[in-house]
Design brief:
By secondary structure, this protein is an alpha/beta fold. It is built from nine helices and 17 strands.
């Protein structure tokens, strides 16, 4: 790929029942901004069709029955101080939420391939922080991506710029991650996005796509880096979940007692790096989780954490 000296790329979803759109903004004198969506006379809006590298359906290699078939298995992959969750869905499809930092891509891809998958049916970049999207370019280049979701928010980092360039290079169609977006609703399986519901947050963490996943009588809630402001906005939503991916690596910017009581998780998963410089998880958050009786599982202590649901019972593998 010919190196570009300075690029501005803005991805914007045009919601419809049939298609999504990618918008490219290019201005040699500017840099990508974090504070607002970019506008420019140089905007290309085009419907994206799957390329030869991006098939429109799951490859046959992925359709073979695997251990845990008909169940939902969530892998909270240990990527150090970052986030990455890979979910084997009971309909034999897959979902990947975030992809750690820039060094995590090969490890994540190998992990998924070792499970027997070469396709990600639903890829979510919760928000454009490097510890969530850093490894995503590698994942996109080395696995088949069917659907991808991102919030409408840009930031001025090379990591984000590289991701957007990879999306264009690989001809990926991107759909806007926002409150009310339904990812999947078939039979006893429902996956939807509860947040963000605004384009005016001051803190980039609150643009995090918050994902609720219900399978029969069990449920999972993935908070990304969403903070207290988002938790307040979610107070009228059904956020009860048996498994909670704790917001912002267990930082005290998230996980108020009021919110945790509403979620009432049996398992609380904290993804963070061992002896990280941020002091995650915060002792207050751990106390809040203890007070509601949640079992706290941490990647810095346990490595990759796997929870399987048969729709009624949860099992830690």
């Amino acid at each position: 790929m010919k190196k570009l000296h300075i690029i501005i790329i803005t991805i914007l979803l045009l919601l419809s029942a049939c298609s999504a759109a990618i918008f490219l903004t290019q201005n040699p004198a500017a840099t990508v901004t974090e504070t607002s969506a970019l506008t420019s006379p140089y905007i290309l809006s085009t419907e994206i069709t799957p390329s030869a590298e991006q098939p429109s359906q799951t490859d046959s290699a992925q359709t073979a029955e695997k251990p845990g078939a008909g169940q939902l298995t969530a892998h909270f992959i240990n990527v150090g101080q970052g986030d990455c969750e890979f979910i084997e869905l009971p309909n034999n499809e897959t979902m990947l939420i975030d992809a750690g930092d820039s060094g995590s891509g090969p490890e994540i891809t190998a992990y998924i391939k070792n499970l027997g998958y070469d396709t990600i049916n639903y890829l979510v970049a919760t928000h454009p922080h490097a510890d969530h999207i850093g490894g995503m370019s590698y994942v996109i280049k080395n696995l088949n991506i069917i659907h991808m979701y991102m919030p409408k928010k840009s930031t001025n980092t090379k990591t984000f710029e590289n991701l957007l360039q990879t999306i264009l290079d690989m001809n990926i169609s991107v759909e806007k991650a926002e409150s009310g977006t339904e990812i999947l609703n078939i039979g006893n399986l429902k996956i939807g996005i509860l947040a963000p519901d605004s384009e005016a947050y001051k803190n980039l963490n609150n643009y995090s796509a918050v994902i609720k996943m219900d399978y029969k009588n069990t449920s999972f809630l993935f908070m990304g880096d969403a903070e207290k402001e988002t938790e307040v906005k979610l107070q009228d939503e059904d956020v009860q979940a048996d498994v909670l991916k704790v917001g912002h690596h267990g930082s005290d910017t998230s996980s108020t007692t009021a919110f945790l009581e509403k979620v009432s998780p049996k398992y609380a998963i904290i993804s963070c790096g061992k002896n990280n410089k941020y002091g995650h998880p915060d002792s207050t958050v751990l106390q809040n989780l203890e007070s509601i009786g949640s079992a706290v599982l941490r990647t810095d202590q346990l490595g990759t954490i796997i929870i399987r649901s048969d729709g009624t019972l949860l099992t830690q593998l």
